[in-house]
Amino acid sequence: MYLRPILLLLPGLALASCSSLRSPIAPGAKPKDHGAIGATEGPAWKDGSLYFTDGKHINRLGPDGKTTVFRHNASNGLLFDREGRLVACESGLRRVTRTEKDGSITVLADRFEGKRFNTPNDLCMDSRGRIYFTDPRYGSREGMEIKKWEWLTAQGSIADTRESVGRGQMRFIEGVYRIESPGKVTRILCDGAERPNGILISPDDRFLYIADNNNNTHGGSRKLLRYTLDENGDVKPGSRKVIFDWKGGRGPDGMKMDAAGRIYVAAGTNKATDYETTRFKAGCYILSPSGRLIDFIPTSPDECCNCAFGGKDGKTLFITSGGHLWSVPLK
Q1: What is the full DSSP assignment across 312-329?
Q2: Which of 62, 83, 87, 234 is the 20 to 30 A CA-CA neighbour of 219?
Q3: pTM of the model
Q4: Residue 226 lies in a domain
Q5: Alpha-carbon span 110 to 328, nearest angstrom
């Protein structure tokens, strides 16, 4: 098990004590490295195959252990909908698409109010089949189109009305959106998260989890946030709650939730950068719904980016980390 090592790595963090939230890692199980196969993002499981992205393509790792290119140009989060169609964030093309069963491509979202998205990053689906996705921008800010004018008070805080202010500013929006149907897009979050990355909705559609990972800025947010959703799937005002904070380390990226409500968050790095420390090692952080650390699965060589459930019985956790694919059996 990995509880003892993580205590040495992260002193002072409270571990879950509830018997219903014990570690899901099978006794004696160790993470297996499947090699440097270009598994950087995405992973999604379907019919005995794992699909993942290498930054340029969607690749398919088949039951025979061979990797082939499934699709070009999609480079980030993936999921399969109820009909078995692959939905993908195509960061480079600034859109979210669906690959139909005949191989054709349906663009689900590429603009909001006529403006192109930044770089759609990750996505999830609620019980009604609606797709939610994050739209951050890492690296260069060139070409960003979605902006918001904000009136400021004399103290520099954001004001609700123009009458109470004397100046304003234009701010780029890195938001969270919901797709009702192709082309019908609603923005549900544009404040409170600096750079939304991973995204997850609880099975009862009650909570929205956002991996707020502003990892190329000194002092930027590296937090797992939780919001409460109303019956329409909109964020309830004032419901923001910090679940876990990676502080000055590499923040959270992709994540999943199991049937017991545990959250599996890909985060951390084994190589320090100008903006990130190695205080939080690369791997999958298993948290309770309230944010207590339950267990930790270490990976290498460097940053850990995403994860997904799969295998014959759905009880294998696949993790992408530094171009390597890892797996570990769960209880």
Answers
A1: TTS-EEEEEETEEEEEEE
A2: 234
A3: 0.88
A4: yes
A5: 36
